[in-house]
Design brief:
This protein has two domains: 6-138, DNA repair protein Rad52/59/22 (Enolase-like, domain 1), CATH 3.30.390.80; 149-208, no CATH class. Helices cover 34% and strands 26% of the residues. The protein has seven helices and nine strands; from the N terminus they run αββαβββββααββααα. Strands 3, 4, 5, 6 and 7 form a five-stranded antiparallel sheet that branches. Strand 4 (68-80) and strand 5 (83-84) form a beta hairpin. Helix 5 (158-171) runs parallel beside helix 7. The N and C termini lie far apart (44 Å).
């Protein structure tokens, strides 16, 4: 199946998302970069063994008013059936010298941030957090019109489980009582068709707090 990898990490858990509060991307979701690494590791194996990347080029470009942009070009490779894929390129950027109210500010983390951005672009091509880029997530919440996540033999998926666990931790709900209410032994045993019911109950508890 051509989307077998895509489907496994297209839906990041709510705990990996943070709503962007200001700027041109206000209302969109910021994805935890460490989750991307975790997702790649869960699907392909440890970095350097099941997947890998190289930093192919780092460079700067002049911006307006004395500002300087930093860019990175990376290549990501995955191992499929024991064979390495062709490189999947990604270009990312950040500000090395940025104009602020007090003058020009130089960042010593510009190339690191540019590399992280480039990796996100390359990983996006293989489906990591695809639902965010498809517009099926609104802020830190799933758009209910989004296509259903792939379930595990009729039960909720790993990402859906992570959503529920994150909300339980946030609301301080009693996990055992919650499982009793859903008539299941563990959260992983929640049927896929009860996912929305569970989310609605936990979101109602959060709003009531």
């Amino acid at each position: 199946m051509n989307t077998r990898y895509w489907d496994q990490f297209k839906c990041p858990p709510q705990s990996a998302l943070k709503p962007i509060q200001a700027g041109r991307l206000k209302g969109k979701s910021d994805i935890n970069p460490q989750w991307r690494m975790q997702a790649m590791t869960e699907v392909f194996g440890p970095v350097g063994i099941g997947w890998t990347y190289t930093i192919d080029r780092l460079w700067t470009e002049p911006g307006s008013d004395g500002q300087v942009c930093a860019f990175a070009l990376v290549s990501v490779r995955i191992k499929d059936n024991g064979e390495w894929s062709e490189p999947v390129p990604g270009i990312g950027g950040s500000m090395l010298v940025e104009k602020e109210s007090r003058g020009l500010y130089t960042s010593d983390e510009a190339f690191k941030m540019a590399t992280t951005d480039a990796l996100s672009v390359a990983m996006k091509a293989v489906g990591v957090a695809a639902e965010v880029y498809l517009g099926n997530l609104d802020g830190s919440k799933y758009n209910r019109t989004a296509p259903p996540q792939q379930s595990r033999n009729g039960f909720i998926s790993r990402s859906q489980l992570a959503d529920i666990e994150a909300l339980i931790a946030e609301t301080g709900a009693d996990k055992e009582k919650f499982c009793e209410w859903l008539d299941v032994k563990t959260l992983a045993d929640i049927p896929a068709q009860h996912y929305d019911k569970a989310i609605r109950a936990l979101e109602a508890k959060r709003h009531a707090a």
